[in-house]
């Protein structure tokens, strides 16, 4: 599946998050931020566009209702950050840590998570379209009541992920690893799995396989 890449100009100026911290409508665009420490802060209804962010820390920061468009993140730490009700489009997360990040009630389109950690992250009640999870950890990640369209899990660890009330029709899990998943039988219809995973699902459903 091809997704749109972030549209970011080559020539960017350097900025800092603290420059807009107290603005009524905080906005940053056409810039780059490196090695910023923006932990335990709050930036509500912010808007970031056409930016690169590298080696930044956003642990426990409140970004509720943030709008992210045409953004490239590399080696950034969003552990336990709040990005609920966010809008994320044409974004790429490379080697990022999103442990326990809150992305509930959000909209994601043309987003790629690559070599990243999303264990215990929360996507509940969100809409994801054209999103790729590549070689990433999604252990115990919550996808409760999500709308998934054109989603790919490529060589990920999704052990313990929750897909309750979420249809997996058309979703290919065949290259990903898991010991158990939380998913109801009706929502498995149309899900693509490997032969070994099919046996795992049979076991998860409580059936006993006899030779």
Automatic annotation (TrEMBL):
SUPFAM superfamilies: Pentapeptide repeat-like. It comes from the Bacteria. Pfam families: Pentapeptide_4. InterPro entries: 5peptide_repeat (IPR001646), PA_immunity-related (IPR052949). This is Quinolone resistance protein. It comes from Ureibacillus sinduriensis BLB-1 = JCM 15800.
